[in-house]
Amino acid sequence: MQKYIIAIHGGAGTILKKHLSLEQETAYHEALREALELGHEVLNKKGTAIEAVTQAVESMEDSPLFNAGKGAVYSNEGKNEMEASIMEGKNLNAGAVAGISNIKNPIQLAKTILHDPEFVYLIGHGAEEYAEKRKLDKVSSEYFRTKFREEQWLAAKSEGKVILDHDADKKFGTVGAVALDSFGDLAAATSTGGLTNKKYGRIGDSSVIGSGTYANNNTCAISCTGYGEYFLRAVVAYDVACLMDYKGLSLADACHEVVMGKLVKMRGEGGLIAVDAKGNYQFSFNSEGMYRGVVGSEVKLGTYIFK
Prior knowledge:
- By secondary structure, the protein is of the alpha+beta class.
- The protein has one domain: Glutamine Phosphoribosylpyrophosphate, subunit 1, domain 1.
- It has helices at 22-44, 49-61, 106-114, 124-133, 147-159, 228-234, 236-247, 251-266; strands at 5-13, 82-88, 94-100, 121-123, 171-172, 175-180, 186-192, 213-215, 220-226, 270-276, 281-285, 289-296, 299-306.
- Strands 1, 2, 3, 4, 5, 6, 7, 12 and 13 form a nine-stranded mixed β-sheet that branches.
- Helix 1 (22-44) runs antiparallel to helix 2 (49-61) and helix 2 (49-61) packs antiparallel against helix 3.
C-alpha cells in the first residue's frame, strides 16, 4: 500500500516555554492534534491530499488560537484582512485569495478557485463576491472579534507600529498543512490574518503560490510561516522544490539550505513544513519554536512547540 502522511504548522517565532502557561501549551497541543486527526481521517479513508490539507487548515482557522480565520489579527482600520492559498502537486492547479474580511474559512474559497480553470488568484471585494455566488459560509465581522486580538491592535495602533501576531513573543500565527495521499499525490495549503495593524492592503507570502505555498508531485509540498516580506523575496516554497529538482538535493538538505542558509543571510525569520513524494517529512525553522505536528500511515501522531 502507498504510504500517506500529513504535517501541519500553526506558526513559528520566538515561542519560549516561559511565555506559555501549562494551560496555553495544552490548548495548542489539543488544537494541533484535532487538525491532524481530521486530516489523517481523510487520508486513512483513501481521500485526497487536497481534502486532507483543507480539513486540517479549516480546523485551525476555526480556532481563536491561531492567526487565521476566527483568530485573525486586525488591520490598521480594525478589519480582518485574510489570505490563503492551496496547491495540488498532480497537475500544479492552485487557488489563492487575499484581502477578504467576511468569509468564514478562507481556505475553502481558495480550494473553490483551485477547481475553477478560469482563475488562480482573487482579492478583496471581487473574491468575496465570487464566494457569495458559490454559497460559501459568510459571517459578520463580529465572528472574528476576540478580546485578545482587539487589545493587540489597540496597543499597536497607539504606538504606531505594525507588529507580528504576538509582539512580546514574536510569533507568526499563520497555519498550514502539507500531505501525501495513498494515490501518490501531494498538496499544500496555507492561511493567515497577516500582521497586526498592517496598512495599505499589505499582503504577505501566505497567499502567493511559490512563496508561501507550493506542491509538485515530482518533488515536494511546502507551507511556510514567517515574516512574509522575506519569504516573498526569497520565493521560499518554490526554492526548496527547485533545489530538489535541479540540484538533486534531498528534502532535508533543500529545506536546510533555504531556511538556515538563504533566509538567515537575509535576516528572514520563520520556517516551513514539507513532505516529499516518498513520504519523508521535514520541519525546518530558524526561530525559537514552531507549532507543528505530523501523522501518517507509518508515523505516530506527534505535536510539538519548542526546539
